[in-house]
Amino acid sequence: MSLRKLFTTTALALCGLMMALPASAKVNSFTITAGPMGGDWYSIGGAMGEMAKQVFPGAIVTVTTGGALANVAKVNAGKADVGLSMAKLYAEALAGKGKYEGKKQENLRAVAFLAYIPMSYFLVKADNPLTSIEEIKAKKLPIRLLTSKKGSSPSLAAELMLAQYGISFDDIKSWGGSVSFVSYAEASNLIKDGHADAWVGPMVSSIVELTTTTKMKQLTIKPAFLDKLKKDFNYAEVMLPKGKYYFVTQDTPQMAEAVIVITQKKLSTDEVYQFTSSLMKNAARIQGIHKTYSGFDPATAWQNVGGPLHPGAEKYYKEKGYLK
């Protein structure tokens, strides 16, 4: 065979091989929808944004504020590529149940489980005469209550928890109180300055900071109500060990949710595989954001997600031997 023929044959073979291989499309933009400013989710979103820049060089990476409920809708609609949410909401969205009754969200898949997060801290200042959540209804107290932004999982959890006591947000307003949906930083400042009475939601960084500058106490949820929340709304239960915070004076059960990363079902296997790989390689970044996430483990990140994994994420976990 002449050198020219050999070159031509080799070139054609290489072209055929290249055509047979899946092409890695260039990612021009990548949007992450996280949580309210002042919260851990916003910090996680920022960290994931830096990871995305590493694996998608040249792409315009954007991190936006959001919440667990809103993020499901944004990712499903293609307004964000990945987002933070909760396993229970992901399961309900796929099934068209709960907040998504009759409106299935089908452009969703899971990437990773990050942590269980207690949702129902009910905190008031230590000198507040209120001793139980039941008192609010019994005395129709005009409490000034704060929870997270509308469209967030904490605000939904607060609403459902209070409903177990026969209390609605409208009830509180009718008794002369108020319900405000604010950022975590705003909640900290409002209670510190005496402009609000109670916080209902998770112990994110801004709320932890509040408890270090202002003496607080916790009103605990009734175990029977926690059981009902588990049965009717798929919440998990975690135990807050005595001393976790100074106001946890005994081992206390809490309603909790599984924090997960979701993505669009429509995204390519390669794109989600690369993002998942970067997220797992940078696990220490997530673990260091708050002690809630200190147990984040790539080996078990495929579990507890509430529904199917994206093929790109599944490929990563199988490749590492985590998922058989």
From TrEMBL:
- InterPro entries for this protein: TRAP_TAXI (IPR011852)
Signal peptide range equals: 1-25
> Coiled-coil stretches, from where to where?
none
Q: Which Pfam families does the UniProt record give?
A: NMT1_3
**Keywords recorded for this protein, A-Z:** Signal
Q: What's the protein here called?
A: C4-dicarboxylate ABC transporter substrate-binding protein
Give the species this sequence originates from. Answer: Desulfoferula mesophila
Q: What is the lineage of its organism?
A: Bacteria, Pseudomonadati, Thermodesulfobacteriota, Desulfarculia, Desulfarculales
